[in-house]
Amino acid sequence: MGESTPPLPHPDRDSRPWWDLLAGHELRLQRCATCGAWRWPPRAICNRCASFEFTWAPLSGRGTVASWIVNHHAFSAEFPSPYAVVLVRLAEQDDCKLIGSFAGAIESLRPGLEVRAAFEDVAAGATLLTWEPASAE
Amino acid sequence: MTAHPFRDRAAIVGVGATPYSKDSGVSTLTLALRAITAALADAGLALTDVDGVACHRVGDSAPASIVAESLGVPDLHFFSDQFGGGSTSHAVVGAAATAVVTGQAECVVCWRAVNARSEFRMGGTGRPPPDQLEFQYQVPYGYATPPQQFAMVAREYMNTYGATADDFGAVAIAQRWYAQRNERALMRAPLTMEDYLASRWIVEPLRLYDCCLETDAAVAVVVTTTERARHLVHRPVTVTAAGWGSGHTLFSNRRPDLGTSGSAAASRRLWSQAGLGPADVDVAELYDAFTPLVLIGLEDYGFCAKGEAGAFVRSGGTGVAGALPVNTHGGHLSEGYVHGLNHLAEAVHQLRGDCGERQVAGAEVALSTGQGGYVMGATSALVLKRD
To answer: Which of A22, A28, B292, B359 is the most exposed place for a label (fewest CB within 10 A)?
Structure first.
């Protein structure tokens, strides 16, 4: 398994800035310049106020775990089991959610667990988001 | 109050299916042709009667136009080739019914044909298709296959409403009882709670028996006007209401949590169109790619309050003598996985009274649903009635 690398991001014209920012270890998200709503995944328009104006604004990187999965079945050799994927509600906005891998102990996962974002470089120019328990200072 | 103009004006007059297997040995085109011709034979109609075609697929099956060409449909009045998996299943038949009610076509064949085990398994881990926009955000994390996506839904449903493994297991066990009385079903061995709990984790909180059976098969139905249906072979099953609705992508904002599906909003419109409510339903075929979807479906279609479906299933409520028999063919979990079309076929058989030992006595009204709208972001369902 040592030789296999996970599938890398395949950006499209909407998502390219997101992946490029991550690769530069910058956690920024689209934020509507008109109503201030955060959104992810990247889109040209705000689905609250229909504004096309937005910025890529910095995030605190703090959030809480809304849900998670623990993979046991080996769907592919690139992802040795068990491993977790988490769905995180952002501190900035409850209904804006990001996913990522989980850097803590799988047994510690519970609803509402406070987490913070970290970067995981998986290949040259390719970085993923991972979440670690906020208590692990 | 006048009746909704769509209500009961189209009917399902034919049902056909290929055998279900792990390797059909033939193309999806061939599967489609076999199921469609079987459905037409069931209806007592000929290929020359067909003037419309409708199917759904996710880049894994023959296009509707090629199927029409292969059948020799001389003059296609209506076609609908929809992108989507189970969420879309009932939208396909809803579109066909709309076409016949509005006079765009008179006889539409609808189908789903998949080699979902031997050729194209749902959700690979390679490069995402360009029309599945959100897939790109999941694939690099090893979060792409349906069990992974629906485990995320299951966990939030458990977190929010307190559902347990016993609740999920009760769904699998109840459906296996029906499958044991269904010759078409792939899984007919007895299943106990002990077996369920001992089955291996696929993606926690989903075990093996929480997951549907990837299947090679096709199922087809024939839709025509109710007026014409009354002169055909079987007592017609009318389309009382067809519902479309929004769902969740896995990241949707403006939705409270994954524990409530898009069906919660869509079902209110569906019942209103039908002029009926949950209490009028004799049998429900609820989309069950994974066990928690049955619980969420029971709640979001109004049969149970949120968080109460688990207790309802555990008390036998969905059994053949229960208050609401559910997934009476064994469902995707135990019959086979034809992405919602086999649910519709079973609903028609129940309303015709064809189901032998698993027949729900006096079934007159059925609900059949597509997937509740997760991942795709859209959902669909039908209410059917014996004419």
So the answer is: A28
**3-state secondary structure at position A66:** strand
Distance CA B326, CA B328 (A): 5
Short-list B296, B282, B281, CA closest to B171: B296
- Active-site annotation holds for B143: no
Chosen for mutation from B131, B135, B141 (greatest number of chain A CBs closer than 10 Å) is: B141
Q: What is the pLDDT of residues B305-357, one digit of tens each?
A: 999 999 999 999 999 999 999 999 999 999 999 999 999 999 999 999 999 99
Token pair for B178: 């029906």
Strands (E), A1-107: 28-32, 38-39, 54-58, 62-71, 83-90, 93-102
Residues in chain A: 137
User: Is pTM beyond 0.80 here?
Assistant: yes
Class of domain B10-120+212-386: alpha beta
Domain chopping of chain A, boundaries: 16-133
H helix and E strand count, chain A: 1, 8
Question: Which chain A residues in 83-102 lie under 8 Å from chain B, judged by CB atoms?
Answer: 83, 85, 87, 93, 95-101
The domain spans of chain B are 10-120+212-386
C-beta atoms surrounding A49 within 10 Å: 12
B337 an active-site residue? yes
- Number of alpha carbons in the 13 Å side-chain half-sphere of residue B368: 36
Burial group, residue A44, by CB count within 10 angstroms (0-12, 13-18, 19+): exposed
CA gap B72, B33 in Å, rounded: 11
Mean of pLDDT values over A108-125: 96
